[in-house]
UniProtKB/TrEMBL annotation, chains A, B, C, D:
This is L-ribulose-5-phosphate 4-epimerase. One of its GO terms (cellular component) is cytosol. Pathway: Carbohydrate degradation; L-arabinose degradation via L-ribulose; D-xylulose 5-phosphate from L-arabinose (bacterial route): step 3/3. Its cofactor is Zn(2+). Keywords: Arabinose catabolism, Carbohydrate metabolism, Isomerase, Metal-binding, Zinc. It catalyses: L-ribulose 5-phosphate = D-xylulose 5-phosphate.
Amino acid sequence: MLEELKKQVYEANMLLPKYGLVTFTWGNVSGIDREKGLFVIKPSGVEYDVLKPEDMVVIDLDGKKVEGDMNPSSDTATHVVLYNRFPNIGGVVHTHSPWATSWAQAGRGIPCYGTTHADYLYGEIPCVRNLTKEEIDEAYEKYTGILIADHFAQQNLDYEAMPAVLCKNHGPFTWGKDAHEAVHNAVVLEEVAKMAARCEWINPQNQPAPQELQDKHYYRKHGANAYYGQKGK
Amino acid sequence: MLEELKKQVYEANMLLPKYGLVTFTWGNVSGIDREKGLFVIKPSGVEYDVLKPEDMVVIDLDGKKVEGDMNPSSDTATHVVLYNRFPNIGGVVHTHSPWATSWAQAGRGIPCYGTTHADYLYGEIPCVRNLTKEEIDEAYEKYTGILIADHFAQQNLDYEAMPAVLCKNHGPFTWGKDAHEAVHNAVVLEEVAKMAARCEWINPQNQPAPQELQDKHYYRKHGANAYYGQKGK
Amino acid sequence: MLEELKKQVYEANMLLPKYGLVTFTWGNVSGIDREKGLFVIKPSGVEYDVLKPEDMVVIDLDGKKVEGDMNPSSDTATHVVLYNRFPNIGGVVHTHSPWATSWAQAGRGIPCYGTTHADYLYGEIPCVRNLTKEEIDEAYEKYTGILIADHFAQQNLDYEAMPAVLCKNHGPFTWGKDAHEAVHNAVVLEEVAKMAARCEWINPQNQPAPQELQDKHYYRKHGANAYYGQKGK
Amino acid sequence: MLEELKKQVYEANMLLPKYGLVTFTWGNVSGIDREKGLFVIKPSGVEYDVLKPEDMVVIDLDGKKVEGDMNPSSDTATHVVLYNRFPNIGGVVHTHSPWATSWAQAGRGIPCYGTTHADYLYGEIPCVRNLTKEEIDEAYEKYTGILIADHFAQQNLDYEAMPAVLCKNHGPFTWGKDAHEAVHNAVVLEEVAKMAARCEWINPQNQPAPQELQDKHYYRKHGANAYYGQKGK
């Protein structure tokens, strides 16, 4: 069942240690088959060096396990909400990557200080509030997803142009058109988080990049007039 | 004698360079056989790339060498005290891992700024005071252990929920149910120390994570209601 | 066509990941044949682990593609201007290397704090202003090159003695007598940027190195009286 | 001539890239045969990955080349002075290792903040002043050595208990009983420099470790009462 997707999601999971985004089992990647309404996710707490494609767990959009011998990631309920609320995404990643997590622990969104950020993420990367005690007690992982999706709705943020979020005192989630692109965005986020911190230390009065420069770089890579790479070839 | 334990402790020692926790010989791991009342520890000053399982030294709970050609770790007396005072631990680690040691040198405990910390360590990681000149002169390594254990007793800290401590101007000790888990906690400590420093630099007014979030993450992984990983499968 | 140069430029591009200067495809190297008036550059958006010498694109000094199946780097127009305005250079590099980019994002030139810097780069590494909205809209990459070259002309900077520049909120460009030396200078810049940031954090009142020390180190390696290395042997 | 020493010095040089202390050719190691009054040093500007034992250059204590096809390190005159003024040392190292160089660029000595430092280096690591223009013009590398040795004499520092120094706006020199120990001390210095910077950032009011703790750790490893390692076995 979903063998090809399992393989893709397995490979995307294995990119997390490759890119230095996880210590031990502190991360998970999922990918969805939109036609079938099923997604595939890493099992909970399994070390990356013993993980196999067939260990992946299949979940439906109500959060019910459809196939798999193991428990799915403890963050599965967050993934469920994100797939339901963000209909155009195909993959979700959660990590505790050190620089992005440091910003999350600091409770700050990441301003757009340069073109590396603007190439992939349009505007300031948001940091959502802590959940209340009631939300935590009732359904921690589910409310994490709801909080993210509600924040994007309330702030009128386009989740396709901003495929990343920080959860206060916790860490980042990223997404993308598939599991591989979601991991790509997790790598970008970590690089951007590192450089944003350092540039503030180099210049404590630092200001975000001018809007026209952000626009130039974002639209050089995205949308109808993009000309970066080999698109249209 | 204790061949299986020697092998385990040897392997746990070899994880220190693998995880980047030691330079040269600046670290040691021990593991105990509680039934026999004997523990096995790295020999002093031996380089990791020539270390062998049979080099491990066997020590009893009075600190007497029971078997081994080499001198045990110079920190052996600290391990002796910790095994005597913390009856449920099975392994002890000492390193000079750079981020944890930087906090120890700064004389500060590490506040719980996020879920990475709360997943493993319940509350602020304590930093114990300097030993007095009298304690140093009389029995430095032994009093290091006594200071740690007394601090946990006086502060009413649960050593199973807080398997790590910093010694001021020195470095960290961690422990766990066996040598391997003690190393695992040393890795967690180093990651947590790194991110705590950086998040303070990103937000100098930073506050610890809300207690309910710390509780949620700690008890998601520990105790009767834990649901992280494949426990109960 | 230009097979030997393509090979050199390919190899110079492959040094970027080797030295940790690029994540994904965030960098490009070119090299020129001055006699023919043609340069060779990396194709746009192609991953380094699939890049081949024959993928290199040949461009003339008007910016026209002369040979190649792929789109050239999106920064090609900047390279064109630099080759036209800096007649003695043979190679150009652009990266988003993290420390140099952090200074660029901070909008600050890098003061010469020591001999590592003075060995290769004479004086403060300049940081040029943001382009205006008009310049961005009209020809972003071309005006990036013009801005750099005009800045060097206006400030009376010798581009051979200062083979590096930072573009505000963007990142660095470096150059050299060939593609390989341009990459060498990109590595130097990254090391220098890292140490300059850290030494300011260690001493917030830090001052540049004395001029006579800068002169000594620069001229120990450059010009008629150089005695570093095996020159003249 | 001195084949065994050349091999040792070659191997010690190759440890510099292994331990991440050098970029390109920014470092050199020498070792001396005290009976013959000759030392062996890396040739100037030769890349580590093509360096061979037979490339080493033999120099006498007047600084004259006795054997070798290549130019010796441009820092040879500094090594000459150190061997003459510090009669018990057998090896000398110069690098631009990033953390030690950051302190040198900041013009600050490194306070002893912990036992990692005290285990090897007794007291604050000194940072010597800039050379004057006259000293630079007359004999830069020779006066670098004189300045170091004079500083140790004037401050009554024991060069055997403090085998490291920083040269302002330049970088570190270390030494030891042979070339290998000098490299060992260069690694220690880099670790200590890194942790000293970070602990000041974690606690800006940080104070050095108590003298009795420094003494305990230094004399646990050095002198008649040392008990670290397998000495006396």
